[in-house]
Amino acid sequence: MIALSPEFEAATKAAADDPEAFWADAAKAIHWEKPWDKVFDDSNAPLYRWFTGAQVNTCYNCLDRQVEAGRGDQDALIYESPITDKTEHFTYSDLLARVAKVAGGMAALGVTKGDRVIIYMPMVPEAIISMLACARIGAVHSVVFGGFAANELATRIDDAEPKLILSASCGIEPGKIVAYKPLLDRAIAMASAKPDHCIILQRPQQLASMIEGRDIDWVGFESEAEPTGCVTVEATDPLYIIYTSGTTGEPKGIVRDNGSHLVALAWSMQNIYGVNPGEVFWAASDVGWVVGHSYICYGPLLHGCTAILFEGKPVGTPDAATYWRIIERHKVTVMFTAPTAIRAIKQQDPDGKLVKDFDLSSFRVLYVAGERGDPDTIAWGEQILGVPIIDHWWQTESGWPINSNCAGLGLYPVKHGSPGKAVPGFDVQVVDEGCNPVGPNETGAIVIKLPLPPGCLPTLWGHDDAYISKYLTDYPGYYKTGDAGFIDEDGYLFVMSRTDDIINVAGHRLSTGAIEEVLSNHVDVAEVAVFGVADALKGQVPLGLAVLKAGVNRDPQLILGELVQSVRDQIGPVAAFKTAGIAQRLPKTRSGKILRGTMQKIADGLAYPIPATIDDVDILFEIEQALQLLGYAGGPGPMPADGDGDAT
Ligand code: COA
Ligand code: AMP
User: Are 35 and 232 in contact (CB under 8 A)?
Assistant: First the structure.
């Protein structure tokens, strides 16, 4: 039996025995304008709510309250942009002043409580200012990641129907400038919902042309604006919508509320990450992802920490020591990144020599998430850094960690490959298809017993029904995470795969179904399959096999180039879709289900069982040949049949 920390055990027990008392106690960390009527409200089950009747303002808790408590001169945000060779410090007072003005400017344009505002920005301080300014006036922001193409942005505009869009002329990626404004213009042209205005931050690296009457220059907008105060909202009012990949091409609008989000994040900063107010916390993610929302922006600020906003990559900006340089420069105590970033550093500095040039004495622990922390990478990182590397598991939907070793409650022994035990408040179980719990080490669907604790999605934007059908129906009484894995005899979770078509590319969540949708629109394509194949840097990358329509006699290489380009144009470069091949036919079950899982195993060079349900085994050999032409499928080949053998 593994000995856990007594604090962790006590918190787990307290949260399970009396969740209302536990979360009411955690809620003392927040300033409420009005206390709640009910800590937990199940009157509209299964749409549960926390802290109903309470009133609050998220921006007040992140900024005004910190200044009032004497943190005005402390850095709230440090903008570290090695890609533009710039470092900028914002104290809590600076950030408050700028946020209050931008909020005032938005209010003057008619944005009021409940209105939606889309933020399509690179990693610049104005992105954080925009989020907090929305929170200040009760507007609901939706940040869209910059690596998405116009079409994806248009889908989000149509779903969120924003009154205003805040954007910038360009983003800066290694070796290139990504013009955001033309993408924004194209997206608005495509969308049916039209914003009244766009506020555009002109970055000196590339100026954007403006559309008169609609577009407003950020600098003039902010300088002319009158600062405004915080608008009180209901704890249950939405703070933001974040779109994430679903099992079809349709993105899902995950809703986050104000009150329970504040409570969960404040609790996690202290108890999971073990960071104290006044210390420096760095999540090297992007504001477009949930990690950026929770742990670049809201979590650190409401806990009185200094947050770092990093515009760069773990390698090449300027080198593989950039993380260590920033940790030393700003005395970072706790950092958060994705395993793919550690792999990128390892590729360039395999012996970890660069670390030795830096004083990392402030650094206590590195948390990783976004994909499974593969044991080799974690062990390498621990060895070169000399601090614990903690894999923790969560999702856009949860908004904060579900399973994690909690530094603030005393770390318990780490098992590589596992994100540890459920965080207090989460009841995580593994079940079979009939929703029966499976035994230790048996693989099944990972589910969470309802109700979910504070901070998790209360619903999907405008689609309560879809929330219920997608997440709460397959396993009655449980939330379906979409992940599969097992819990071992010590209660450690191992997250091994998805049960749907989601793949993780460099810590980014993508739907292969969405890529298939784009590819199948090509005039020459009859049928297509996309699946994730192993990649030494990104964990997985998507690979497509297309069957061409009969009679097509154009150069196949030309067609494949068009397919790759179409995904870049319609989903965006973030999909990292670079490899497509031609297949004569696709392997299917007798009922017509494409055997993507089998093709994935063939591509990855793994032994694959011949699915008992396949009609014609020769197809698998054809696929092996097609994949070999693409540089894949160097494995042992088929094993004897054992059922379907295909997970997707
Ligand atoms: N705006 C515009 N384009 C963007 C973008 C943005 N914000 N972010 C990425 N892109 C583009 C890149 O330029 C690249 O385009 P390319 O195909 O023309 O080269 C493409 O999207 C893929 O980018 P990325 O996933 O960053 O891959 P990369 O090869 O440039 O870098 C890593 C690889 C591993 C260094 C990088 O993925 C990384 O830093 N990952 C860590 C991610 C992370 O921390 N996630 C946190 C989740 S918890
Ligand atoms: P996202 O919503 O983009 O954060 O992606 C969430 C998904 O990423 C999860 O459902 C998992 O499939 C995967 N994931 C995130 N963190 C981990 C982890 N620590 N271990 C294994 N998978 C992870």
Answer: no
Site residues for ligand 1, CB cut-off 6 Å: 122, 146-147, 171, 173, 178, 284-286, 289, 291, 313-315, 337-338, 340-341, 344, 369-370, 506-507, 537, 573-574, 576
Residue 496 contacts residue 484 (beta carbons within 8 Å): yes
Residue to mutate (ligand 2; options 337, 367, 372; most atoms within 8 A of CB)? 372
Record the tokens describing residue 68, joined without a space: 């009032």
Q: Is the dihedral of CA 337, 339, 342, 348 positive or negative?
A: negative
pLDDT confidence of 645, banded at 50, 70, 90? very low
User: Is there a contact between 34 and 55 (Cβ–Cβ < 8 Å)?
Assistant: yes
Position 266 scores a pLDDT of 98
* Residue having the nearest C-alpha atom to atom 20 of ligand 2: 372
Residue-level pLDDT at 425 = 98
Residues with beta carbon inside 6 Å of ligand 2? 244, 290, 369-373, 391-396, 419, 481-483, 495, 498, 504, 509
Beta-bridged to residue 639, according to DSSP, are 609
Q: How far is 144 from 287, CA to CA, in rounded Å?
A: 8
Which tens digit of pLDDT belongs to each residue from 176-220? 999 999 999 999 999 999 999 999 999 999 999 999 999 999 999
Task: Delimit the domains of the chain by residue range.
Answer: 6-72+88-250+421-486, 502-639
| Per-state percent for the chain, helix, strand, coil, to nearest 5 | 35, 25, 40
Ligand 2 binding pocket mutation candidate from 272, 290, 294, 395 (most atoms within 8 A of CB)? 395
How many angstroms separate the CA atoms of 474 and 316, rounded? 45
Domain at 6-72+88-250+421-486: CATH architecture: 3-Layer(aba) Sandwich (3.40)
Report phi then psi at 376, rounded to 5: -60, -45
Q: Nearest ligand, CA of residue 288?
A: 1
Q: Which amino acid, residue 616?
A: D
User: CATH number of the domain at 502-639, please?
Assistant: 3.30.300.30
Intrachain domains 6-72+88-250+421-486 and 502-639 with the same fold: no
What single-letter amino acid sits at 541? V
Nearest atom in ligand 1 to the alpha carbon of residue 574 is 21
Other beta carbons within 10 angstroms of residue 467's beta carbon come to 23
Q: What six digits make up the tokens of 526? A: 């009859």
Ligand nearest to the CA of 291: 1
On the question of pLDDT at 460 being above 70, the answer is yes
Euclidean distance between CA atoms 272 and 265, whole angstroms: 10
Asked whether residue 647 carries a pLDDT value surpassing 50, the answer given is no
**58-72 as b/e: b if 16+ CB within 10 A:** bbbbbbbbbbeeebe
CB 369 within 8 A of CB 398: no
pTM of the complete model: 0.95
